Amino acid sequence: MHQFTITPLAPWELAGYDVSFTNSALWMLITTVVLIAFVAGGMKRQLVPGRWQMAVETFTGFIDDMLEANIGDAGKKYVPYVFSLFMFILFANILGLLPLGVVGVHPFTFTSHFTVTGVLALITISIVLIVGFWKHGLHFFGLFVPHGTPLPMIPLIFAIELFSFILRPFSLALRLFVAMMAGHVLLEVLSSFVIDGTNAGALWGGVVGLPSFLLMVGICALEILVSGIQAYVFALLTVFYINDAENLH
Amino acid sequence: MPQIAQLMETYASQIFWLLIFFGAVYFIVGRGMVPKVMATVAQRDDQIAADLAAADAARTAADAEEAAWRARENGSRAAAQETLAKAKSEAALASETKLVAAQVGIDARLAEAEAAIAATRNAALAEIEDVAVEAAQDIVGRLAGVKVTKPQAKAAVKEALSHV
Q1: How many domains does chain B have?
Q2: Which A residues in the span 137-166 are in contact with B, Cβ-Cβ below 8 Å?
């Protein structure tokens, strides 16, 4: 579990709160810098794009299509937010997976902390609430009563729908946090099998260490996939929730 | 689990730095760079659409040009054909008129010649009659010693000639 430990690098207290610059904040900074560098590399604005520009345009087009398909024309204005969210999570997940431990630098996956994923989920839900009440006023509560609900069922359905709506930020935040943490824990457990098995001699190294090592290679590939999928799921659910606010039903 | 064990000491720092860095990403990348990237894509799409439209317009113009050329060509061909037909029919008419005129001339000369032949023959026949009448009178007078009047001889000759 050491890989999830937050260690302060530069202690700093602000208005009674401890806002030290930690290894977590450092990796947020690295993610931000890498992401800016990536997108900036695609800003040559050539009519015939190069490979880098093509890659960046693929990502913006992907987010744009997702919003267009789920929300419609009104979805255009959320491209900056959803793009930032998707790319920030994607880069954080992948940077946290880099095998930099080999050269003595320990990556920190800040998306494996629910304080981080929780804040991102709350930002999404805040946007949903603000847009929903801004556009529809009190009609936004109609979201909790699906069309065609029989009158006697309305209070019960309303309570259930409201409860599921309140749970949305939790499911959003926990899904990403759990997926990232589980993957890293799994890799750590398997790597301990490899090291302990090999240390226990050639027999155990062959029976436990080698298969665990081969499994780790596969799991690493799977984790890269999970990094992408979790970023996609977070962005896609954000788009669904914004669609609820934008179009009600 | 450090996420829970360290929650109370680190939540403020986590939230603070996340808001700063995610905010930076949102404003620098999301608001600053992404619209420019998407504008480039839109500009390229517009350019392609405009080029396709221009190509389409050029093809339509070429088609119209060709159709006009074809119509013009057909028109001049028809005019040429008409001129040719007119000239042909005029020539035919003229030759026919000439032919008719020549025919009339030939017919007239033929009729004239026939009339002349008929007149000559009649004259010859009349002469033969006269000669025959005189000869018959003379022959009868000499042989039979009978004096035959001219009308009698003439009637006899006429009768005999009609048998010829």
Answers
A1: 1
A2: none
